[in-house]
Amino acid sequence: MTDVSAPAPRRPGEQALTTIGLTAPAPHPSDASPHSFPDGGRWRTEVPSVEGPECLAEVLKESARLDVPIHRVSQGSGVWMLSDADITEMADACAARDIELCLFTGPRGTWDTGGSTRTDSGGAGLRARGHDALAGCVEDALRATGLGVKCLLVADEGVLWTLHRLRARGVLPADTTFKVSALIGPVNPASYAVFEQLGADSINIPSDLALAHFSEIRRASRAPMDLYIEAPDDLGGYVRMYETAELIRRGAPLYLKFGLSKSPGIYPYGAQLRDTALSSARERVRRGRLVLDLLIRHGADGGMSPLGSRLPGPLSRFPLTPNQPTPDQLPPDPLTPNQLTPDKD
Fold first, then answer.
1. Angle at CA of residue 306, ends 41 and 13, nearest 5°
2. Is there a cis peptide before residue 25, judged by omega within 30 degrees of 0?
3. Strands, E, within the chain: which ranges?
4. What is the mean pLDDT of residues 148-174?
5. Could you tell me if 159 and 279 are in contact, meaning their C-beta atoms sit under 8 angstroms apart?
6. pLDDT confidence of residue 128
7. What is the dihedral of CA 72, 76, 78, 79, to 10 degrees?
């Protein structure tokens, strides 16, 4: 919680610039988000691209060495790229430290036979193509939650709505949370609110949104945001460290994601990428330390959620649809040609 007796945060270079007449205009109170996490915190931390037990061990070791608090770690290759033993080891290690583990679900259009994803337009992108891909995402969700994973990353609106309905029916644990991928992240208040209604518990937004966009979204939804403070190159490579305090002020409740630009892609991860994955995992934690140091220097480090916090609080949802009929409950199909009475001569 923020210390009410602490001095107000300052902006970068503020005092020096004031001496030469370049004082920045005061932030307007209406720009600030009125929302917070249910624990009262305004921000949490996340280390992304933690692709397996070995990467996780590096993140945990480096976070202890650099004193970087971590609320969540997330993985990008997918549940199906991990063995049961891998998932169990990661879930146990995170549970022992009160860190939320988030794994990506199911098949994606960028990796299957959908050639349109490799055109200039990008086609359907990460979305799940067809019933089988949807079913694969559900299978991953069931497997991961059965092994103790409490957060699932999704990249398709239909997958999100399906998993939310399964959570509501008790097929998935009630405390499972769903996180929307940055690669389908919404860019306006209306679309952001739709993701919340579909069941999202935190929503990645693209790292290139302007500060005003954060305030606009917060007038439409209180669902937690996920934001790369430093974005991977395939998401633009933006580095917004100096804006972190203002991003929190406008976007809370907000997960600060410590990404890494100028680093090779590692999805889907395997042993051939081991050295890159381990070194980049350590560097993501160091980048997190740099962000936290900036907040401290600017007097803006208050308001972090207690470690171990993970739930988003009450959110708005679309009404759940009634149960879908089983095949035997459907009306009979129209007569097929061979069932029609033949014409008489």
1. 60
2. no
3. 43-47, 72-74, 100-104, 151-154, 177-180, 202-204, 225-230, 254-258
4. 97
5. no
6. 85
7. -20
Residue type, 25: P
How confident is the model over 161-169, as a mean pLDDT? 97
Spatial CA neighbour of 31 closest among 214, 199, 153, 286: 214
Q: Is 212 exposed, middle or buried, given 0-12, 13-18 or 19+ CB atoms closer than 10 A? A: exposed
pLDDT in tens, 26-57: 889 999 999 999 999 999 999 999 999 999 99
- Dig out the tokens for 324 from the structure: 């879908």
Q: What is the DSSP string of 53-94?
A: HHHHHHHHHHHHHHT---SEEE-SS-GGGS-HHHHHHHHHHH
CA triple 141-176-220, angle to 5 deg: 110
Rounded-to-integer distance, Cα 227 and Cα 230, Å: 9
Q: Give the burial class of 115: count Cβ atoms within 10 A of its Cβ; 0-12 exposed, 13-18 middle, 19 or more buried.
A: exposed
The string of pLDDT tens digits covering residues 52-93 is 999 999 999 999 999 999 999 999 999 999 999 999 999 999
